[in-house]
Protein backbone atom coordinates (compact mmCIF):
# COMPACT_ATOMS: atom_id res chain seq x y z
CA UNK A 1 0.00 0.00 0.00
CA UNK A 2 1.05 3.59 -0.60
CA UNK A 3 1.16 5.35 2.77
CA UNK A 4 1.88 8.98 3.58
CA UNK A 5 2.94 9.87 7.13
CA UNK A 6 2.66 13.54 8.10
CA UNK A 7 4.42 15.52 10.81
CA UNK A 8 2.35 18.70 11.21
CA UNK A 9 3.93 22.03 12.15
CA UNK A 10 3.91 23.43 15.65
CA UNK A 11 2.65 26.96 16.36
CA UNK A 12 5.92 27.69 18.17
CA UNK A 13 9.28 26.19 17.46
CA UNK A 14 11.81 26.07 20.27
CA UNK A 15 14.02 23.42 18.78
CA UNK A 16 13.69 21.28 15.72
CA UNK A 17 13.82 17.55 16.06
CA UNK A 18 13.55 14.77 13.56
CA UNK A 19 10.16 13.05 13.66
CA UNK A 20 11.62 9.87 15.13
CA UNK A 21 8.22 8.36 15.94
CA UNK A 22 7.13 8.64 12.31
CA UNK A 23 10.50 7.33 11.14
CA UNK A 24 10.04 4.24 13.36
CA UNK A 25 6.57 3.73 11.92
CA UNK A 26 7.87 4.16 8.37
CA UNK A 27 10.64 1.61 8.94
CA UNK A 28 8.19 -0.93 10.32
CA UNK A 29 5.71 -0.37 7.49
CA UNK A 30 8.46 -0.65 4.86
CA UNK A 31 9.63 -3.89 6.46
CA UNK A 32 6.06 -5.17 6.03
CA UNK A 33 6.25 -4.35 2.30
CA UNK A 34 4.48 -1.00 2.12
CA UNK A 35 5.58 2.04 0.14
CA UNK A 36 5.96 4.85 2.68
CA UNK A 37 6.45 8.60 2.23
CA UNK A 38 7.06 11.17 4.95
CA UNK A 39 5.93 14.80 4.84
CA UNK A 40 7.65 16.83 7.57
CA UNK A 41 5.92 20.21 7.73
CA UNK A 42 7.78 21.58 10.77
CA UNK A 43 9.59 24.25 8.76
CA UNK A 44 7.00 24.78 6.08
CA UNK A 45 5.53 28.27 5.70
CA UNK A 46 2.42 26.95 3.92
CA UNK A 47 1.84 23.43 5.25
CA UNK A 48 -1.62 23.02 3.75
CA UNK A 49 -0.49 24.06 0.27
CA UNK A 50 2.51 21.73 0.53
CA UNK A 51 0.32 18.85 1.70
CA UNK A 52 -2.07 19.47 -1.19
CA UNK A 53 0.78 19.16 -3.71
CA UNK A 54 2.04 16.00 -2.01
CA UNK A 55 -1.41 14.43 -2.04
CA UNK A 56 -1.88 15.24 -5.72
CA UNK A 57 1.52 13.77 -6.56
CA UNK A 58 1.25 10.59 -4.46
CA UNK A 59 -2.49 9.83 -4.30
CA UNK A 60 -1.92 7.79 -1.12
CA UNK A 61 -4.21 4.98 -0.01
CA UNK A 62 -3.57 5.75 3.66
CA UNK A 63 -2.54 9.01 5.35
CA UNK A 64 -1.37 8.96 8.93
CA UNK A 65 -0.61 11.98 11.08
CA UNK A 66 0.77 12.45 14.55
CA UNK A 67 0.19 15.33 16.91
CA UNK A 68 0.54 16.68 20.39
CA UNK A 69 -2.04 18.94 22.03
CA UNK A 70 -0.18 22.03 20.80
CA UNK A 71 -0.58 21.16 17.11
CA UNK A 72 -3.88 19.31 17.30
CA UNK A 73 -5.81 21.97 15.36
CA UNK A 74 -3.37 21.96 12.44
CA UNK A 75 -3.27 18.17 12.34
CA UNK A 76 -7.06 18.16 12.18
CA UNK A 77 -7.10 20.70 9.34
CA UNK A 78 -4.53 18.63 7.45
CA UNK A 79 -6.58 15.42 7.79
CA UNK A 80 -9.70 17.29 6.75
CA UNK A 81 -7.87 18.35 3.59
CA UNK A 82 -6.76 14.77 3.01
CA UNK A 83 -10.34 13.54 3.15
CA UNK A 84 -11.49 16.30 0.80
CA UNK A 85 -8.76 15.72 -1.81
CA UNK A 86 -8.41 11.94 -1.42
CA UNK A 87 -11.84 10.76 -0.28
CA UNK A 88 -10.91 7.10 -0.70
CA UNK A 89 -7.84 7.36 1.54
CA UNK A 90 -8.01 5.98 5.03
CA UNK A 91 -7.10 8.69 7.55
CA UNK A 92 -5.24 7.57 10.67
CA UNK A 93 -4.40 9.80 13.63
CA UNK A 94 -1.95 8.98 16.39
CA UNK A 95 -0.02 10.77 19.09
CA UNK A 96 -0.37 11.58 22.77
CA UNK A 97 -3.48 13.80 22.65
CA UNK A 98 -5.60 11.51 20.51
CA UNK A 99 -4.47 8.49 22.52
CA UNK A 100 -6.33 9.72 25.58
CA UNK A 101 -9.14 11.57 23.78
CA UNK A 102 -9.87 8.96 21.08
CA UNK A 103 -13.66 8.83 21.34
CA UNK A 104 -13.97 12.61 21.53
CA UNK A 105 -11.69 13.03 18.50
CA UNK A 106 -13.71 10.56 16.43
CA UNK A 107 -16.99 12.16 17.50
CA UNK A 108 -15.91 15.71 16.60
CA UNK A 109 -13.58 15.07 13.66
CA UNK A 110 -15.69 13.04 11.26
CA UNK A 111 -12.95 13.06 8.60
CA UNK A 112 -10.81 10.81 10.82
CA UNK A 113 -11.26 7.11 10.12
CA UNK A 114 -9.03 5.49 12.73
CA UNK A 115 -7.23 6.46 15.93
CA UNK A 116 -4.14 4.49 16.89
CA UNK A 117 -3.44 4.81 20.60
CA UNK A 118 -0.05 4.44 22.21
CA UNK A 119 2.94 3.13 20.29
CA UNK A 120 1.77 2.21 16.82
CA UNK A 121 4.51 0.19 15.12
CA UNK A 122 2.73 -3.17 15.31
CA UNK A 123 -0.82 -1.82 15.42
CA UNK A 124 -0.32 0.20 12.23
CA UNK A 125 1.06 -2.79 10.33
CA UNK A 126 -1.92 -4.85 11.45
CA UNK A 127 -4.29 -2.03 10.51
CA UNK A 128 -2.80 -1.87 7.00
CA UNK A 129 -3.55 -5.56 6.54
CA UNK A 130 -7.15 -4.98 7.66
CA UNK A 131 -7.46 -2.07 5.21
CA UNK A 132 -6.02 -4.20 2.42
CA UNK A 133 -8.46 -7.02 3.19
CA UNK A 134 -11.40 -4.59 3.22
CA UNK A 135 -10.41 -3.05 -0.11
CA UNK A 136 -10.08 -6.52 -1.66
CA UNK A 137 -13.70 -7.15 -0.73
CA UNK A 138 -14.73 -3.92 -2.47
CA UNK A 139 -15.57 -2.11 0.76
CA UNK A 140 -15.24 1.66 0.80
CA UNK A 141 -12.16 2.28 2.94
CA UNK A 142 -13.31 5.50 4.56
CA UNK A 143 -16.44 4.04 6.07
CA UNK A 144 -17.00 2.10 9.29
CA UNK A 145 -17.17 -1.04 7.16
CA UNK A 146 -13.42 -1.57 7.43
CA UNK A 147 -13.35 -4.73 9.48
CA UNK A 148 -11.19 -3.88 12.49
CA UNK A 149 -12.43 -6.50 14.91
CA UNK A 150 -9.79 -8.47 16.74
CA UNK A 151 -7.28 -5.64 16.78
CA UNK A 152 -6.34 -5.93 20.43
CA UNK A 153 -2.76 -4.87 21.04
CA UNK A 154 -0.79 -4.06 24.14
CA UNK A 155 1.18 -1.17 22.77
CA UNK A 156 1.27 1.10 25.78
CA UNK A 157 3.78 0.61 28.59
CA UNK A 158 4.08 -3.05 29.65
CA UNK A 159 0.96 -4.22 31.39
CA UNK A 160 -1.27 -1.42 30.10
CA UNK A 161 -4.10 -2.78 27.99
CA UNK A 162 -4.89 -1.11 24.70
CA UNK A 163 -8.50 -1.81 23.89
CA UNK A 164 -7.69 -1.50 20.21
CA UNK A 165 -8.75 0.57 17.30
CA UNK A 166 -12.05 -1.26 17.03
CA UNK A 167 -13.38 0.03 20.37
CA UNK A 168 -12.57 3.63 19.46
CA UNK A 169 -14.09 3.06 16.02
CA UNK A 170 -17.36 1.99 17.61
CA UNK A 171 -17.66 5.42 19.23
CA UNK A 172 -18.60 6.86 15.86
How would you sum up this structure, described in words?
- This protein has a 5-stranded parallel beta sheet, with helices on both faces.
- It is globular, with a radius of gyration of 15 Å.
- The protein contains 7 helices and 5 strands, in the order βαβαβαβααβαα.
- The chain is an alpha/beta fold and about 170 residues long.
- α1 packs across α6 and α2 runs parallel beside α3 (about 70-85).
Strand % is 5-15%
Mean pLDDT: 81
What kind of sheet is the major sheet? Answer: 5 strands, parallel
H/E element sequence: EHEHEHEHHEHH
Number of helices: 7
Please state the CA-atom Rg, rounded to the nearest Å: 15 Å
DSSP strand tally: 5
Strand order of the largest sheet: 2-1-3-4-5
Structural class comes to alpha/beta
Enumerate the spans where pLDDT stays under 50 for 5 or more consecutive residues: 138-145, 152-172
* Helicity, as a percent range: 40-55%
The end-to-end distance, rounded to whole angstroms, is 25 Å
Overall body shape? globular
